[in-house]
Amino acid sequence: MNVDVEIYLNQFISFFEKNPNSLTELIGDINKDNFFNKVKEQCYINIEKGDDVSLTRSQIIEIVGGLLKSQKNDILIEKTNKLFQDTKFGQFCLN
Predict the structure, then answer these.
(1) Sequence ranges of the domains in the chain
(2) Integer Cα distance of 67 and 80 in angstroms
(3) What's the CA gap between 33 and 54, in Å, rounded?
(4) Largest Cα–Cα distance of the chain, in whole Å?
(5) Considering only CA atoms, which of 16, 9, 73, 84 is closest in space to residue 41?
(6) Long-range contacts: 91-95, Cβ < 8 Å, 24+?
(7) Percent of the chain, pLDDT > 70?
(8) The Cα angle at residue 57 between residues 51 and 62, in degrees rounded to 5
(9) pTM (2 decimals)?
(10) From CA 26, how far away is CA 95, in angstroms rounded?
């Protein structure tokens, strides 16, 4: 556990706790815990590379984009699972 990362994360999270509208504008309906976990992972990656602990704007955008893509894929899989039904005769489509 890196002290610099923990300080940065505490400041990062407390900013968004004090400004929840800013968090909603940034991440939309993404789970905030997932977002903060990804931010923490990126902070440690930055430290390992020898960079500054703080995230750049492009890194935050990549995190949000990745989470949105993951969320959309989950929704697509859920819809696909409802579209295709397994029976004892095999799988069929409700299209």
Answers:
(1) 3-93
(2) 20
(3) 18
(4) 59
(5) 9
(6) none
(7) 77
(8) 95
(9) 0.73
(10) 36
